[in-house]
Amino acid sequence: MALTELEVKKEKATDKQQKLSDGSGLYLLIHPNGGKYWQMAYRFGGKQKTLSLGVYPEVSLVDARDRREQARKLLANDADPSAIKQATKQEKRKALQVSANSFSILAAEFHKIKSPMWTEGHAKQWLGNLEKYALPVIGDRPITDIEPMELVGIMRAVEANGTFETRDRLLQTIGAVFKYAIAIGRAKYNPAEIRMALADRPKVEHFACIPTAELPEFLRAVTAYRDLDKVSPIAIAALRLLMLTTTRISEVRFSKWADFDLDAGCWVIPEEQTGRKGKKASAIPM
Fold first, then answer.
1. Residue 162: CB partners within 8 Å, gap ≥ 6?
2. What is the pLDDT of residue 97?
3. Least crowded by CB within 10 Å, which of 26, 108, 170, 214?
């Protein structure tokens, strides 16, 4: 006699396993611990077999009957539903393994490990270049399947925009991901060794610079500049400090009065200053 949803829900466990039949091989197995499991008994190849169809109540009576009918159709076509279920599990497991070994997953792992030591700007640029140029092409690919010619194609597409500096940074980034994958045993070689297949960077025309002999006169002119409607005194002082100490613009921008010891003639740029993540404190003589 076919089961009802109410029977399945109300049936209590006993000190022994129980089987409540729904017909055509489907039954509800109730364990002494209260667990309820849908199973289907069938014969295939002259052997008695059991197919697990799920756990109640996650799998309802209606769902269990649907799964039973799907299994019966397989049997009618001389296919073993248990073997097909096992093969499907193996395919899913393999797909998960491939996904875990994809370029995008490994790039994310590498970024997570290394970015705490980078500046915020570098970490953002590192990931941004990958997302813009590389991940749409090779992100979902298993890292062991990626070939050098694919990377050449990515690099040449960046070259076509005339952004050679971006190309070189991107290649360095991709190469770092492969080196990381090799180090942890998830790749065997680095296909990013392709620089010989790329165009040489065009010669860069640098901005003109002031001859060394003219620097004193320029510095005096900056000091004497008085058109404060166009340039603030703070900007003038910052430019003089930058020229006299040859520090970075960001180090001058984010400096504080507490960093300067005028009596000792020393400026200490602290490790925690904005933009200096991963860099040690620096002492600059004044």
1. none
2. 56
3. 214
